[in-house]
Amino acid sequence: MSKKPEFKFGIEWEFPLVRIRDSQYVDFDNTKFRDLQGIIDDLPEFKEDYPGLRVGDLGIKKKRWYIEEYERFDEEGAYTFCDVKGVEIRTPICSSIDEAIKTLSEDRRLFSEVAKKHGYRPVAVGFNPYKTKYTPTPPLNSWELNFRGQSPEAVTADINMLTQGPDISISLKGLSDQDVIEIGKKLVFYAPFIAVFSFNSPFYEGKLWKGYSARSFVRNPYRPSVLVFVRDKANLINQKPSLTEECRIECEAGRIEFKAIDSVANLEILGSLAALLKGLALDTRLKGRSAKPDIELHKKAAIEGFDNEEVILGSEQVLKAAREALASDPDISKLEVLEKMLKTRRLPAHELIESYASTEDIIKTLEEVYDRYV
After folding, report:
1. What does the DSSP assignment read for 231-264?
2. d(C-alpha 49, C-alpha 310), whole Å
3. How far apart are CA 50 and CA 46, in angstroms?
4. pLDDT computed for residue 148 by the predictor
């Protein structure tokens, strides 16, 4: 890294909904896009957020809140409808971690108030607790098959329909494409030791899973754990899953999105993870680099978490490196949240597992744990 960058932060927080009247976990099989659109319509639009937030071609992402979905098109490429996954809240670009977490917390509270009036409530879990497969219906037509074959992520979008996880973005002003790619490769290498702190999906097919993150086990080998936005398309790396993407709007230049983490109700963990990523971006000592995820290590971490000595040692290593790199930076205190988790060997999934032992009901468990943090 040629010089110390200026940091900015953003969080895109994906989360599922529960329909209140029948305690139904909302997904593509039981809810239509129009069922949820009324919630989004009743939420405000902040003009000052733009052009920092990307709207997209279909205009679905017009606000901080939008419905996560799988878009369908006809044979000529005209949009027809969407299948529902859940909802996303995205913060505007923030000058500090504290500002990003505060904004996300306030926007989450406002969403909850409006959603309740429409008969829904948010919860937090990393993987659909009941479904293990999403199959587009009707089957993809020839235009859609061609369209989804144009990027590695579009091909695996069916996996995305089962998962919920926030992206933590750090924007590093003043660095070259190569500087930012180098940081991205470091984060890919150490991703299993970072993501483990978020593991929050211990359910699969309507019962307890064999580990702590079904999401990480299913998703992280095939979809990006890190995405780096570059200015010059000559610096794009052609691989599966992607590591790089060309900036679509100016403010994406120098942005790194960490995408390997589960959706958690406790936003303090996200703030601590953002501080960890900041420290690792500043770090000059860690030598590990990789353009592609370590599939076996992601799966091992997903199942065993801090029950595995390799994962413990890796997480200790990244925390130590981040603490040394942050030095006198005020954000260093945020690492204490993760350090306590590592010391006690506690993951967010433990709360769900313990609650489920009492309720024997996944929906009640999700609601009970979520309500502790709002």
Report:
1. S-GGG----SS-SEEE-SSGGGTTEEEE--PPP-
2. 42
3. 8
4. 87
261 phi/psi in degrees, rounded to 5: -100, 155
Q: What is the pLDDT of residue 154?
A: 78
At residue 57, does pLDDT exceed 90?
A: no
Task: Indicate the SS3 state at residue 354.
Answer: helix
Taking the whole predicted model, whether its pTM rises above 0.90 is answered as yes
Tokens of 3: 């010089």
- Structure-block tokens of residue 338: 């993760």
Report which of 218, 208, 124, 115 is spatially closest to residue 166, judged by C-alpha positions. 124
For the chain, give the number of residues: 374
- The tokens for 110 are 């406002």
pLDDT digits (tens, 9 = 90+) for 140-198: 999 999 988 877 777 788 899 999 999 999 999 889 999 999 999 999 999 999 999 99
| 249, two tokens | 């709007």
Range with the poorest average pLDDT among 62-71, 97-106, 202-211, 281-290:
62-71
Q: Which residues contact 58 (CB under 8 A, 6 or more apart)?
A: 71, 79
- Cβ-contact 126, 305 below 8 angstroms: no
Beta bridge partners of 172: 7
Comparing CA positions, the residue from 253, 262, 269, 313 lying closest to residue 288 is 313
For 363, other C-beta atoms within 10 Å of its C-beta total: 17
Centroid of chain to Cα 26: 18
Other C-beta atoms closer than 10 Å to the C-beta of 72 total 16
Distances (CA, A) of 84 to 69, 185, 215, 233: 5, 32, 18, 32
